[in-house]
Structures are given as structure tokens and as C-alpha cells.
Amino acid sequence: MGIRTGKEYIQGLRKGTREVWLRGERVADVTTHPAFARPLAHTAGLFDLQHDPVHRDVLTWRTPGGDLVGTSYLPCKTKEDIAKRAAAYRVMAEPTLGMMGRSPDFLGSVLHGFAESSELLEPLGGDFANNLREYANYVRDNDVFLTHAIITPQNDRSKNSAGQADEFLHLGVVRETSEGLIVRGARMLATMGPIADEVLIYSMANQKPEDSNYLFVFAMPIATPGIRQICREPYDDGTRLAANHPMAANFEDSDTLIIFDDVLVPWKRVFAHNNVPVINDFHARNTGKNHSSHQAAVRGLVKLEFVVGLLMEVVKANGSEKFLHVQQMVGECVHYVELMKSCLVRAIAECEPGFGGTIKPPLLAVNTGRMLTSRFYSRIIEILQTVGAGGMQMMPSMEDFHSPISTDIEKYYQGATGVDAEKRIRLFKMAWDICGDAFGSRQVQYERYHQGDPVRNMAGLFMNYDKSVCEGLVARAIESTSQDILLKLQAPKMALAA
Ligand SMILES: Cc1cc2nc3c(=O)[nH]c(=O)nc-3n(C[C@H](O)[C@H](O)[C@H](O)COP(=O)(O)OP(=O)(O)OC[C@H]3O[C@@H](n4cnc5c(N)ncnc54)[C@H](O)[C@@H]3O)c2cc1C
Fold it and tell me: Is the separation of the CB atoms in 346 and 365 below 8 Å?
């Protein structure tokens, strides 16, 4: 079948019955509910983009079977293949200015890496590894839109899953049957869950043996009886005027808690379970992390470029760009953009051997880019808040332009030379959405947490880092200083002797 259009994607969401709860009510049809209208339109737009003659060659490739499929499933044999993947990530990120974390290429990259690394699951025996490969082909060939839920709900973080107040507060296996696994409990959180086709369930590495019953890899269609999603309070319920909230009313991603109520996961859809060491090893070494971190870093760069551009326009509009300390702060942000670009050059130039004759972007480079996005993004937002200051708070509604006070609006909201009131108001509204609105706070939180807990990620980086070069320099320095000290200690004696 191959790539779908946006219309086909939306039609697909109408098949089956999905259970989505929003503000105390069950959503009858996510494709017509106003709260999902904008994310749906943006996602559908990305499906259509694959058919656009301008972008088709970058966004797609032809499988040996003849299907035209998404580039996030492109196996990499050469550096050009990695470069093509990077170019496709960029084309996918630009329409939403990097704000949509769960564009289809993100989980496409995760699943592609999982399948590419499926040999790591062979020690499980049975059909698990093969099930994963077949599932990845199915998703690729049918252009399926995935979400994922990898984290257990917080509940009580001082206890593991087995120790929670209820045995199945966290998603776990109730029993095995001849048909598959019966699973019960919750996972958090599934971004875009209400309008995704399927959900991929897996975990972070380093899970404890006592949580064996909560450790598995499987995928299920969202429209499965017993799968229930509870949406967080929407920041845009479809009623906000895009002119007043150019970012918040356009780029809302929904997030849900996803509950499995004794759902049967057929064996075909189970890719791993009941073996903590093998599953931990799979999560530590599969190339899904390489490809998805690469995607996240490219998307992150687009996002940084956009907010830095916004920052530049804001300081131009309020005339503060002439002040030295403001120039210094914007210059600092330019550094961040340029550093991100450097990580992405390494992603291709220093590619490494992967599984089965493939190559992969080095995790250190792409993961550094991905983790830096989070730090840089929140710092740029802090600077935007500092230089935008109270100006962002006092912007009127766009409706005021069409009211009896419109001349006041034109006069009193004008900016520095050459920036009229309308441009300044539009700019500052955009800036406020990004750094003051709930939408903007979620964006900061998304970058901080979507890749897992940054504290443990950084600690893992330190623990697993090849320290030989850094420590070697220190060893040489110690050696040379100790000789230096010896010389100095000997010097007075020599002087005395003389
Ligand atoms: C906007 C947004 C979108 C997201 N989308 C998705 C998604 O689509 N799919 C998905 O699966 N996840 C998603 N996530 C969830 C994300 O994976 C988690 O937020 C992240 O893994 C951190 O987990 P947590 O929020 O439970 O924080 P916690 O793990 O509870 O961490 C909170 C604090 O407690 C500390 N802490 C907690 N436990 C320990 C411990 N055992 N040892 C040491 N310190 C600890 C942490 O260091 C941290 O400071 C999203 C998150 C956000 C904010």
C-alpha cells in the first residue's frame, strides 16, 4: 500500500471504536471533536506532504516490494542514507516549527531501529524477534501513525511497579493464554494518543528483576476494546482564536494517560516479555535510540532556529537590539543553534556500524544534540521572557483592530522604527504563547522530559562514557606536574649547594 494521504489517515481513525475521555465526557468521534481539529489537521498535512512533488523524493523511498514508504523506515547503508533521513526530519519539522514532538517520523524512527536490532531479541526464542520485524513492515507499508507509552504513572516513585498500592496500577501481565497476554493497568503518557492509530508499549533500560511482570514490548491498535485514554485538560479546546494565540491555538499536541482494562495482546503483537536481562539489553543497545535521537535533534534545531528568530524580531520591534547586554544574550542563543548544527554534522560524518550491515548515527552525537535541545530551549525561553518583559503582557486582542479604538491601537502599540502596531502585536503574541501561555510551558516540559528523566540520562552518560581521552590527559598532567614539583623541590637544595 505505502504512504497515505491526510484524508486516508483521518478515515482510518473512524474505523473501530476508540475510548477517549475529555473533560468528563467520552469523545464520540475524535475526527470531528473541536479539541482535536487542529492537531488532526497538522498531522494530516504531514501525510499529504509525502505526496507533494517538491518533497516526495526526500520524504519517501521505494521498498524492494515496490511500495513508496516513509523515509523514517529507510535502512542506512551509506552516509547519504543518513543524510536523507536528516533532510526528511527537517522537512517534517518545519510546517509545525519543530513544535510537534510526535510527528509520525519520530516513532517511525524508533520502530525502524527496533526492527533493525531485532536480533537482540533472538535469545528469547519463539517468534518474538520475527513478530517485531513483521510488525515494523506492516507499520511502514501501511503508513501507520504511532504513539508510545514507555513510562509508568508516577503514583509512588519510591516503590517499584510491583510495590504500588494496587498490583495493576502500573500496566502488567494478568495472565498468559494460548492467544496472547492479558494486560491490565496504566502507562503515562501518550502524546497524540487520541488521534494515533496504534500504541507501542516498551520501557527504558535498567528495569529491576522484581518488575519482570511489568516489562514487555508490544503494540496494539488504539481502537481496541478495553483501551481507554484520559486526556489532560486541553490548552486549546478548538475555540481559541488563532490570531490571538498563533502558536497555542495551532500546535497543541494532546497528552493522555492510557489504561488497559484486561486487554488481550495477541502473540503476534508481543515482541518481548518475561525476560528482564534480554529486554534491558535490547533497550540499551537497539538503534531506535540512535535514529529517534537524530530525529529529535533535527526537529530540536528547527525549534531553536524558530525561537531565536522570534527573539531577534522581538528585540528589533522594541528597539532593545541596540543595547550591548541584549546583543550579548541573543549572541548566546546563536551559539546554541550553531552547537546543535555541529552535533548534526557528526551524526553523519562519524556514523558507526549498526546491525545486519547497516550504519547508524553515533548515539553520543545525536543524543547530545537531543539533550542540549532541552537545556538550550529553556534558556532561550528565559531570555525571551527577559527581553520581551511586560510588553508581552499588554498586547490587546486582535479584535480591537476592528473596533472604535482601532486608531489607539495603531498609535500606541507601534514599535521601533519600521515596525507597525499590527506586526508588533502579532510578534509579541507569538512570543507570549511560547514563553507565557500553558502551551509554552508544556513545550519546555516536553523538551525537558520527553526523552526520559534528564537526571538519570546525564548520569548514564557519565557512567557509560569512554573516559580514556579525558582521564589520559589528567594522568599526563599529573605526571608532568609531579616532575615539575620534584624539580622545584630540588631547586632550593641546588641553590644552597651553590
Ligand atoms: C509534555 C510531555 C510529553 C510526553 N510524552 C510522552 C509520550 O508520548 N510517551 C511517553 O511514554 N512518555 C511521554 N512523556 C513522559 C516522559 O517520558 C516522562 O515525563 C519522563 O520519562 C520522566 O518521568 P516522570 O515524568 O514520571 O518523572 P519521574 O520519573 O517521576 O521524575 C521526577 C523527579 O523524580 C526523580 N526520580 C524519580 N524516580 C527516581 C529514581 N528511581 N531514581 C532517581 N530519581 C528519581 C527524577 O530525577 C525527577 O527529578 C512526556 C512527558 C511530557 C512532559
Answer: yes
